[in-house]
Design a protein that fits this description.
With about 325 residues, this protein is of the alpha/beta class. It contains 9 helices and 13 strands. Strand 11 and strand 12 form a beta hairpin.
Length: about 325
């Protein structure tokens, strides 16, 4: 009989092992993921990789393709399935997608490069697909004409759609998890518009970067520590303000994406406004935009990122070069940095 009870015990043990919950290959602490993996074999786009295959993503190849940041997007549609269909049709993808109710979908493992950024530049980086993860947010984005639920922002004629609270909470949890896992600096949490000024507008001026930073500690947004009197910075020219925006990392794309130099500068300023000065997104250097730029410099210059323990070296070096070149015009900053 002993052998019988031993057999029964083994069977129960085997059953218990079989009943253990499936542990996915990718997970993030504190983030509930719905696994909906994209399959390259379902890509119908004419685009192909170097071997001639139709693909929506590819494997990372070396340490030059390490993960450095995150690009946030909107889908310009109302459903997850609609976005996935578009991925397959156009040969693009994103690692994650968050619907309006806050459900977070896992589409492409971060060990793969997803095609979500396109032509892009920021600071010293270009073609950001290879170093940045992509997060899509299900949203219509904007409409050119008046539309139910759309909101106009000063300086712009489009009707933008706000993000539901549950979606933003889920976005915060996902970004936080990714920043921790990959040691991503907050100032490398960027919008598609940040890295492709004029070519892209997502996630738009209603995406709450400031709320994400102040309430959830993710990304980066400058802290308004000092009241800014523009008279103390009157020596700064419009060109100086534009160069400061560039020192933060904003970089125009190739000339083919713009009508002329004036259009290029308009879109550069507007991209900055949509992220850091959304009160007015006119593409002009409004006083509120100048205050934001100055406050941004004062805060970012000595800012130490909580996830990496590092400062923004590119900004500090580039801004120091501007100060050295025109010390009189940048004298107003000497009180603060």
């Amino acid at each position: 009989m002993k052998w019988y009870f031993s057999l029964i015990s083994c069977l129960f043990a085997a059953q218990a092992l079989c009943m253990k919950p499936y542990v996915p290959l990718f997970s993030l602490d504190g983030v509930n993921l719905t696994y909906d993996h994209l399959d390259n074999s379902q890509c119908t786009a004419p685009r192909s990789d170097s071997q001639g295959f139709q693909v929506m993503y590819r494997l990372r190849e070396d340490n030059k393709e390490e993960i450095l940041g995150i690009v946030v997007h909107y889908t310009a549609g109302s459903t997850v399935q609609g976005a996935i269909d578009s991925f397959r049709k156009n040969g693009v993808s994103a690692h994650f997608m968050i619907d309006e109710g806050g459900e977070t979908y896992f589409h492409v493992d971060p060990k793969y490069i997803a095609f979500h950024a396109g032509a892009s530049h920021f600071a010293e980086m270009s073609s950001l697909n290879k170093n940045f993860l992509g997060i899509e947010h299900v949203s219509l984005g904007f409409k050119e004409e008046e539309y139910p639920g759309g909101i106009q922002v000063p300086g712009d004629n489009r009707y933008w759609f706000p993000y539901p609270e549950e979606q933003i909470k889920a976005s915060a949890m996902l970004i936080n998890g990714l920043q921790k896992k990959y040691h991503i600096a907050g100032y490398n949490i960027l919008g598609h518009a940040d890295i492709a000024p004029g070519r892209k507008s997502d996630p738009g001026p209603l995406f709450p970067y400031k709320k994400l930073f102040n309430e959830f500690g993710v990304g980066y947004f400058f802290t308004e520590t000092h009241p800014i009197n523009l008279e103390n910075f009157a020596q700064l020219t419009d060109e100086d303000h534009i160069n400061i925006i560039k020192s933060i990392g904003y970089t125009p794309l190739d000339d083919k994406f713009y009508k002329n130099d004036k259009s290029k500068i308009h879109h550069l300023i507007q991209a900055y406004q949509m992220h850091f000065a959304p009160e007015c997104i006119s593409g002009k250097l409004e006083n509120c935009t100048k205050r934001a730029i100055i406050q941004h410099v004062i805060d970012l210059y000595n800012y130490v990122d909580q996830y990496t323990g590092e400062q923004h070296k590119y900004f500090r070096n580039t801004f120091d070069q501007l100060r050295e070149k025109n010390p009189g015009q940048f004298q107003g900053f000497s009180e603060f940095i």
